[in-house]
Input
Amino acid sequence: MSILRKIKCDRCLEDTAAIIMSMFNRDHICMLCKSEEQELPSYERARDADVEAYKLGNKNFEGIGLSPADSEALMQMRAKRVITN
Ligand SMILES: [Zn+2]
Output
């Protein structure tokens, strides 16, 4: 039995071979979505909060969440992605 299976990105809903946890919330996202969220101005804050929570022993940190502005910025990056493909 193969352990390989199709995975869907929680954020852009595309099939992907690899998935990683978002720094902002509990979404399991593809590498494209990951690189896009790293471009958000609030990424550093999300990462710092994650590191801080881990240091305090919280290994199930929910993340700081995506603000409406963050979600909008990600949506625009995804829209561009479709055009350039
Ligand atoms: Zn994605």
User: Anything to note?
Assistant: Residues 9, 11-12, 14, 29-30, 32-33 surround zinc ion (CB under 6 Å). Residues 7-84 form one domain. The first helix runs from residue 31 to 37. The longest strand covers residues 7-8.
